[in-house]
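Reviewer 2 asked us to include a model.

Predict the structure of this chain.
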Amino acid sequence: MKKIIANEFEIHNLNYPKSYQDTQIRLTTPDGNFRNLSYFLYDENTSFNMEIYESKLIIKNGLESTRSFYISTLEDQIIFSSDLTKILGCAPEIDISCALNFIFLGEVNRLNTIWKGVSIVPPGTSITIDYSSKKLDVSTTFLLDEIRSPCSNLYAVIAAEIRKNANECDGIIIEFSGGLDSTTLMYAAHEVAAINDKKILAATWASNGCSSNDDVNHGAKIALSLGIEHVIFDIDPDMLFEVITVDKYPDNPSVAICFEKFRRSFIQKSIEKLNVKYPLILNGHGGDHVFYASPTVHMLREALKDKGLAFFLKKSLELSCYRRVGLVQVIKEYLQRKSETSYVKNRYIKPSICAAYFDKHSTKYGHFGNGEEFRNHSIEQALCENSNSKNRFENCHLSFPLTSSPVISYARDIPVYDLFNSTQDRLVFREEIFARCNSAAIFRRTKGHVTGVFQKSLYAKREKIRDLVYNGYLYEHEILDLDKFESTLISSSIGLGGIPYDFMKIIAFELFVKSWDRRISERKFK
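Predicted model (structure tokens):
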């Protein structure tokens, strides 16, 4: 046991607990009252440390950690835990502001959860607790500026990350779409598996009749060229739009929740197919975030600042070609100093709610000073999303090499305006990997979709979805425009107009709330 006393701040058991351990921290505030902090950490993969600086407690969760932890600020104590259920209690309250962040923006706001008073501390972040006043002040920040792992060979860095994680596993599975990110992981994993004598499998999901079949064809050619077994799993409509009952569940809503049950089945079937006990699962999510997959006018600000007007005009023309819009429109967006803000309006939310939200947040979201800030925001979002996924699977090591520290460091050294030209995004990434792999898939910009199978599921489950939404949180709190939701449910379920993203967010939100309600209710009666 280690004990540190500083400024009437007392910490016990500062050493990392190797197994489950309840650690109490006690501090004295200026009013003379004691405040208690508790933390509960469950595994050795949480890179966790504390520092005391003047009247502040700084808690860091390292980027290489495989777990997020959560912090709840109560009136008389702060609790942080690697298990969200540990701090939610039996009757957690939804924070309506955070709920609307997801409905309008597609994310709760990275470092918040949807639960009132509960924040998330994902890998690569720190939380500061200031106890210099009577009221405890808690703030969370990302540690991107502390990531300094310079490298000159991106492919070698990715392969090294895979090799490091593969050492503790007895096989490798790539979640393989045939696009840039998963193809990169496929080539690197193939080399690692050959050197370390590991079994390897590429697994793809698809749906007959959807354009995802193009992904299957691309993926099959690459797997065949490398001699890697490639399996395809058809998406089962019965596994979509389902309330989840497992113990490990997402800490925040996302549209992927509509797909969660099938995703779990997909991973389990892949493990059974490879026939190993504890495989490494490689997922390319985050590569588009780290290397800025969707060029915007934000990137032009550095172009003008660093290289002058002529270069600015050159990159503006390239951006207009890439986006297939007029040069005048690009220049106009740049001069307005903002990007499109239509995404904060969700047609399924009552107009009065939209107006109030837009008035409050229009200058906070979607307006970043430059491309570097926008990229940092995107990286932070990927770190949160990947951490959320890592926490949910126990019979495998789920790894996201493209958001590892060396890769992030490499990407952030590239000026944002060098990441695109008139035809390609993530340009430097593509060129570096192509030099090693020489595969046309590296320059493939588009991938297929599986909208059709989701529409089949909507049709089969339309009454179930009505019941979910009509008795859900958004309608109960007079946020949802039920008529518009019903209209889209009818049209989308019979194959008209696809499935709008905003519509999916409504269903995903209610699935998330329902799943957590069930989980908390079950825990109440244990």
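The chain has four domains: 21-146, 154-291+377-443, 298-371, 450-525. The longest helix spans residues 298-323. We have added this to the supplementary material.
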